[in-house]
Every structure is written in structure tokens, then in C-alpha cells.
Design brief:
With about 350 residues, the protein is of the alpha/beta class. It contains 14 helices and 11 strands. The chain has 2 domains: about 160 residues, Rossmann fold (3-Layer(aba) Sandwich); about 180 residues, Dehydroquinate synthase-like, alpha domain (Up-down Bundle). The protein has a 7-stranded mixed β-sheet. Strands 7-8 form a two-stranded antiparallel ribbon. The structure holds nicotinamide-adenine-dinucleotide (NAD). Nicotinamide-adenine-dinucleotide binds next to helix 2, helix 5, helix 6, strand 8 and helix 7.
Length: about 350
């Protein structure tokens, strides 16, 4: 079977979902709970039921969709459902959804009765290539993302690319930003392959697997983000700040990937200005990203607010804004402190593209 090994569990690339059937046959769980959101309950649960018609004896816990619901109130809702349905320590949670379901469902499972087993079945491109692998679980407090959470490993991750067929296009493109990022930080050949696609819709299961493999290799080497894992943050220092600003201020806010796309262009500019990345590769990155992510109209009067948000990023040490920057397409360095002036210059660069 097509699979990767992570820390103590397997990641299956399996359109038949037979890996789920085998897993359940090999382990005798007292009860099985499937957590979905409204959309994955509607689009993905029937696919799962169709592929595994003999799967029975499970309870569904459905949460409303959206990041604003990845919070303690809905988490308490999940814990209460587990309690009401008498989940004991030998129960299993299956998270069937995007990053909101996989993050919150795994947080709820990893804390309920001091931790019960859980499986990830990610249904968005973003959760397949990023959120479901690496052991980070979490919920938000107000607009502070992932501020409460645990490191906890699933019993397995099962990736079936059929699920992403029902994904709205903006969500597919959002996940594609992480695919491009994996190429930039770790694999030049993979980068060239994915940026040549006419659309993210053309992504293949082999390409999804390569992305997961890159993330998996990094997190296996540095599970608790003491060093190397920080390279996964390329594009995210500026990108997260723009995402937070947009969530609060834009009538149609940017998706995570759209914000990270801006972050990758501006941070590639910083990499060039600090003498790390050639101007040729900066131009390649900029042009390739703009092919998939139309330019966003960034206003110069928000620079100070963006810097303020970056200053509070939980990844900073001693209040200094830390970056992970590529020195070529396919390699990335981390723990690079950058001045406020250069950050502002990179935002100007984006505005004047
Ligand atoms: P999401 O879970 O909100 O899903 C996006 C939208 O797509 C939702 O409306 C959802 O209902 C819908 N959806 C999901 N699957 C679908 C399908 N197959 N068909 C139709 N609609 C579907 O968001 P996301 O982009 O998957 O994940 C974002 C979250 O992931 C954030 O909370 C972020 O913090 C987290 N994340 C975590 C990690 C990690 O390492 N733990 C890494 C990256 C991101």
C-alpha cells in the first residue's frame, strides 16, 4: 500500500479507505466517534459510508464549519458528547474534515480522559498536506490562533484525494500555497513540477504525497519546533499578520493560503535583500505565485499594525521578529532577525509589483 511512516503511526494514501477498515478490524475499540463539520457531514461522510458500507456502530459529532468555531465552547460540546455517549478510554475519535476539525477534534481527543486514540481523515488540500501531519492540536481564543493545544500523535492519517473534489475552489487554492511552500523550502524539482500545473485542481495524489513527505521529514527531525521545523514557517511571519488583519477588516477576508502567498513574495524579497536569494529566483517565485494568487491591494497605512501583529507572534524570541528564509529554491534557513524597515520595504515591493 502507498504509505509513509511518521512518529509511531502510518500515513496512508488510500482512495479505497480499506486502511480504515483494516485499522478498525485490527483494533477493538469500545466505541467509534466521527467528528465532522456541517460541510464534511454533507459531502464527505456519504463518501466514507459509500466506500465502507459495512462500517457500523459509530456516532457522529457535528460542529458548525469555520475557524470562528475552533474554540473552547465547541470543544466543551465535543467533550460533553463523548461523555453523554459514554466514551471510555478505549474509544476512538475519527476526525473527518479540514484543519478546523482535525485540530479541534484531535485536541478534544488528546485531553478527554487524559487522552484517547484518534485518526485523521483530512478532507481539504490544506489539511492533507499540512494540518493533519505533525502532531499539533489546538483551538483559538478570540482572534489568537492555536494558542491552546497539545502535541499529540494520531493512530493513523488516511488521505483520500477524492474528498477534495467537492472543495470550493478558493479552499483548494488556499491549500496550494502550502504545496508551493514545500517546494521552495525543500525541493526544487517538486517546486518546478507544481508551479507548472494549469490549476491546483490538477494536483495528483503523488504530488500530495510528496508534500506530506516533505512536512513529515521535517517534523520527524524536529517534532517540537526547536529548530529545523521553523522552516515550515516560510511565508507565515508576514502572511499570518496580513491574514489576521484581513480577518478583522476586509469584508471578504483572505484565505490562509492567499495571505501566505503574499507572505512568500515579501519574504522572498527580504531573502534577496539580505543577500541569501538571487534576484532571478526572487522573480521566479514572485511570477509563479502571482499566476495562482491575484494581487491583493495592500494599503501602506496598515504597516505599523502589521508589525505590531508580527511582534506578538508566539514564534518570536525576546520580542525580535524571526523569519525563515530560502537561500535558493529548495532550501531554507531559520532564525533570521529582520529589521522593521526591511519588512516595510518588502511590503512596498509587493504593493509596487
Ligand atoms: P477548514 O477546516 O475551515 O475547511 C475549509 C472549509 O472547507 C470549511 O468550510 C469546511 O467545512 C469545508 N470543507 C472541508 N472539506 C470539504 C470537502 N471535502 N468538501 C467541501 N467542503 C469542505 O479549513 P482548512 O483550510 O482545512 O484548515 C485551516 C485550519 O487548519 C486552521 O485552523 C489552521 O490553524 C489549521 N492548521 C493546523 C496545522 C497543524 O499543524 N495542526 C497546520 C496548518 C493549518
Amino acid at each position: 500500500m502507498n504509505q509513509l511512516t511518521s512518529s509511531g503511526y502510518n500515513i496512508y494514501f488510500d482512495n479505497t479507505l480499506s486502511s480504515l477498515e483494516n485499522f478498525l478490524a485490527e483494533n477493538s475499540y469500545s466505541k467509534v466517534f466521527i467528528i465532522t463539520d456541517e460541510n464534511t457531514g454533507k459531502y464527505c461522510l456519504p463518501v466514507l459510508q459509500n466506500k465502507l458500507p459495512n462500517l457500523d456502530n459509530y456516532d457522529i459529532i457535528e460542529i458548525p464549519y469555520g475557524e470562528e468555531n475552533k474554540n473552547i465552547d465547541f470543544c466543551i460540546g465535543i467533550w460533553k458528547m463523548l461523555l453523554d455517549f459514554e466514551a471510555d478510554r478505549n474509544a476512538l475519535v475519527i476526525n473527518l474534515g479540514g484543519g478546523v476539525v482535525t485540530d479541534m477534534g484531535s485536541f478534544a481527543a488528546s485531553t478527554y480522559k487524559r487522552g484517547i486514540d484518534f485518526l485523521q481523515i483530512p478532507t481539504t488540500l490544506l489539511s492533507q498536506v499540512d494540518a493533519s501531519v505533525g502532531g499539533k492540536t489546538g483551538i483559538d481564543i478570540d482572534s489568537v490562533k492555536n494558542i491552546i493545544g497539545t502535541f499529540a500523535q494520531p493512530k493513523a492519517v488516511i488521505i483520500c484525494d477524492e474528498f477534495i473534489e467537492t472543495l470550493p475552489e478558493n479552499q483548494l487554492i488556499s491549500g496550494f500555497a502550502e504545496v508551493i511552500k514545500h517546494g521552495i523550502i525543500a525541493d526544487n524539482v517538486y517546486y518546478n513540477e507544481v508551479v507548472k500545473l494549469a490549476s491546483p485542481k490538477e494536483i495528483t495524489i503523488a504530488q500530495i504525497k510528496r508534500s506530506v513527505e516533505i512536512k513529515n521529514e521535517v517534523v520527524l527531525e524536529d517534532p517540537f519546533e526547536k529548530g529545523l521545523r521553523k522552516i515550515l514557517n516560510f511565508g507565515h511571519t508576514i502572511g499570518h499578520a496580513i491574514e489576521s488583519w484581513s480577518l478583522e477588516n476586509d469584508s471578504k477576508s483572505l484565505t490562509h493560503g492567499e495571505a501566505i502567498a503574499i507572505g512568500m513574495i515579501t519574504e522572498a524579497y527580504i531573502a534577496n535583500k539580505t543577500g541569501m536569494l538571487s534576484v532571478e529566483e526572487l522573480n521566479i517565485i514572485k511570477n509563479d505565485i502571482l499566476k495562482f494568487f491575484p494581487k491583493y491591494s495592500l494599503k501602506s497605512d496598515i504597516y505599523d499594525v502589521l508589525l505590531e501583529i508580527m511582534q506578538h507572534d508566539k514564534k518570536n524570541i525576546s520580542g525580535k521578529i524571526n523569519f525563515s528564509l530560502p537561500d535558493k529554491i529548495g532550501n531554507c534557513k531559520f532564525n533570521i532577525v529582520v529589521s522593521h524597515d526591511l519588512i516595510k520595504e518588502s511590503l512596498d515591493y509587493y504593493r509596487n509589483i
